[in-house]
């Protein structure tokens, strides 16, 4: 089953629950640099890959979300050109998965705060160098990195 598609940015996804996620629970496309898509409350389970995929422009906020057995909570597009995506992830409880992957050389930025993780120690925020058309980007770094992955390790709690 396909997930929710936000075709033009500026979407509010509130208290939506996804079980057995197929490709992505939420795909964000289009929009402008000033677009803001908000995910408030809710959660997702059983996502072999991504929960939120951002292929558009603008900002995304994920707050008060529960996610379990997943590959990545958030992934910015690594083959979509320089879109300067901004992501804020706050008050998330994550079980068995990674929190976010950014495309650092495309000026993506993440702010991460108050994340509780159950399961093995994981890379909370990692980044890749984006590619042009074709080829999947490969991970090139992890951890706090100034404007790329902005968070304090003491705001991440393993339970």
Automatic annotation (TrEMBL):
Required cofactor(s): Ca(2+)
Database matches in InterPro entries: Pectate_lyase_PlyH/PlyE-like, Pectin_lyas_fold, Pectin_lyase_fold/virulence
E.C. number: 4.2.2.2
Major localization listed first in the record, in broad terms: secreted
GO annotation (BP), single: pectin catabolic process
One cellular-component annotation, GO: extracellular region
Catalytic activity reported: Eliminative cleavage of (1->4)-alpha-D-galacturonan to give oligosaccharides with 4-deoxy-alpha-D-galact-4-enuronosyl groups at their non-reducing ends
Keyword Ion transport: no
Example of a GO MF term: pectate lyase activity
Gene3D superfamilies linked: Single-stranded right-handed beta-helix, Pectin lyase-like
PANTHER family the UniProt entry points to: PECTATE LYASE F-RELATED
Protein name in UniProt: Probable pectate lyase F
Source species: Peronospora matthiolae
């Amino acid at each position: 089953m396909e997930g929710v598609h936000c075709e033009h940015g500026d979407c509010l996804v509130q208290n939506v629950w996804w079980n057995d996620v197929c490709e992505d629970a939420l795909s964000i496309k289009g929009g402008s640099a000033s677009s803001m898509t908000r995910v408030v409350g809710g959660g997702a389970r059983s996502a072999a890959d991504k929960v939120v995929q951002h292929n558009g422009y603008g900002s995304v906020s994920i707050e008060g979300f529960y996610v379990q057995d997943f590959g990545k909570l958030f992934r910015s597009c690594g083959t979509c050109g320089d879109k300067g995506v901004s992501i804020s992830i706050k008050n998330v409880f994550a079980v068995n998965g990674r929190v976010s992957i950014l495309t650092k050389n495309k000026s993506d930025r993440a702010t991460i705060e108050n994340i509780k993780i159950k399961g093995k120690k994981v890379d909370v925020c990692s980044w890749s160098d984006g590619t042009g058309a074709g080829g999947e980007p490969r991970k090139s770094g992890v951890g706090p990195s100034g404007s790329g992955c902005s968070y304090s390790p003491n705001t991440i709690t393993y339970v």
